Amino acid sequence: MVHELKDRSFWVAREDEILEGRVTDVYFLYTEQVLRSIGRNPRVTIEVFARHVKDNWGIVLGIYEAARLLEGKKVNVKAMEEGEVFLTSSAVYEPVMQIEADYADIATLENPILGLLCSSSGIASKAARLRLIADDKMLVSFGTRRAHPVLAPMIERAAYIAGFDGISNTLAADLMHIDAMGTMPHALILSIGDQRAAWHAYDALMPPHVKRIALIDTLYDEKIEAIMALDTLGSRLYGVRLDTPSSRRGNMRRIVEEVRWELSIRGGRDIKIFVSGGIDEEDIIELKDVVDGFGVGTSVSAAEPVDFSFKIVEVDGKPSAKRGDPSGRKAVYRKDFDDVVTLAGSDYARMLEDKGYRALLRDLIIDGKIVREFKSVEELRSEVRDRLQELSMRERNLRWLL
Length: 402
Prior knowledge:
This protein is an alpha/beta fold. It has 2 domains: 15-122 and 304-400, nicotinate phosphoribosyltransferase (Alpha-Beta Barrel); 135-301, TIM Barrel (Alpha-Beta Barrel), CATH 3.20.20.70. The chain has helices at residues 15-19, 26-37, 63-70, 103-106, 110-134, 152-161, 170-176, 186-192, 195-205, 222-233, 246-249, 252-264, 281-287, 298-301, 347-354, 377-393, and strands spanning 43-50, 57-59, 75-79, 85-87, 97-102, 138-141, 166-167, 213-215, 239-242, 272-276, 293-296, 308-315, 318-319, 330-335, 338-343, 358-359, 362-366, 369-370, 397-400. Strands 13-12-1-5-3-17-18 form a 7-stranded antiparallel sheet. It has a 6-stranded parallel sheet with strand order 7-6-11-10-9-8. Helix 10 (222-233) packs parallel to helix 12.
């Protein structure tokens, strides 16, 4: 049998191919070839920005990976911090990254730079919205099975930094030095053939730090299986999980309330109730006052990418951009989520600094060398939590100052 792939088993790019710019669109190769053939390689400033995002805000992730991609090249890069909140409006764009480079040298890197930023930021932005909606209820990422496995660590990192309490993917957990979280699948119960026997076997084998959370919708009504689980595990039962498919749900809130009632009158008032299966924003809004947590899958792992653009705004030191894009190198300042975009180095920029506004675009790479210390996942997660809290309490404003 002849394998269609000669040098790999899966349809994925290797790290060296990404770093070399081989995952590019062919017209960037044409562009590089033409520029070099005529001896033209202008020094340009490129800005990465989004014209539109849901609710006019998002979380930018992928900054650190983009820095690794550009490291060692003849570039200067300013960027927002990993995990920063960026804003958009109908007319004003905030660059999340600004790259100064000889264009022919980085033309083929547009694809991977955007890919690193768009995917991570889309997942983080979705996860952050769910975090705000869920208030203090537990959120666990369950969705990597519905994404290409090569993306699993990126997906889980983005969800965790954006505020999810846990992740289920084991490789991602290992890379982030945290414990993966999970309960049990229907497959375990079906393989054993009896719910009680499956719960007993799980309880007997799992180490103490693994919560005893029984899946209660495999064969019987959720209320009946909840009672069975409490009777089987007693005080060792930490929680129950409902993963009821949409075809059987009916009124999901009523089902949860019935489960809560039956557990409570049998001494299980403190048993946690978790819900999973197709969970999205509307489900969390409907159920968050009657459940203790949510397992969220596809709505996060397959979140819409942020549609960042990669646009030249300056050529050989002079403002230049395609129509529809504002030319000139920008600076972005923030104070209490009053965001101001102005020309870099202008009198307005200095005035904003004097008034206590902080610059969101800071040096990331100077002459090819990364000059910013990368923060740990836990540090980024803490900072995002604080930003989201501030975001929820303040009125957002984004404006030009020229």
